[in-house]
Amino acid sequence: MTRDDQDRMAAEHVLGLLEGEERGEAERLLATNVAFQVLVEQWRQRFAEWDDTAADLPPGEPLWQRIEAGIETQPAAAAGRPAPVRAVQSPGLLQGLWTSLRFWRSFGLAGAMAALLLAAGLGFFAVKASRQPVLVAVLMSETNQPGAVLRTFADGRAELTPLGDMQIPHNHSIQVWTFPDPAGAPVSVGVVHTAKTVLLNLQNLPQPHSDQLFAISVEPLAGSPTGQPTGPVVMKGTASTAL
What we know:
Layout lengths: L2 H13 L4 H13 L1 H19 L8 H12 L20 H6 L2 H31 L3 E7 L4 E7 L4 E6 L9 E8 L7 E6 L5 E4 L11 E8 L12 E9 L2
Antiparallel strand pairs: 1-2, 1-8, 2-3, 3-6, 4-5, 4-7, 7-8
Helix pairs in contact: 1-3, 2-3
């Protein structure tokens, strides 16, 4: 038996909650085990502090009168007989649970486990939601063939994935543009040097919306020197809500 088990048993022994084998084991330890005797005494002192917080209430005169009246009405023959023993009712289920350290420890452990599972579940769904695209745009080439897929996410990220054999001219780059305002100028969202999946950043732009136009132009290695497309536009497409 661990020290925690002995501590729990000592507390419940002081409260009178032990029954059956555990009660017999507690009585055996109380008679033979010094460490258990110390634990029992410590719990008695702790619970005694609760008793000390209650104010003493002296019995009133009506109570003494009822006691005296009860003594006077007892038959004289009953003087030689022992008083009947009134059965002591065991505490009810709710009272026993309220005073049971075992119950509250189990309740606390269950609550902590539930909170942990809830936090893990919320974290899982939050991560899953952040990985689901909000909008998808298929960018079509001049020959009306799909050349790349652009996905936007709720946290402001965007992901460009080339399709097929997308080529970037030597000593050039491709630059991704979008039109937050259909009637306004294009805004750059990234310069790409290699034909592979890359992350773009839309956090400094208004929230993308359905039918928003995205386009790709060929630019110098460092990107457009003017902040606007200077080379040919090789792909474009509008975004739609992701399924």
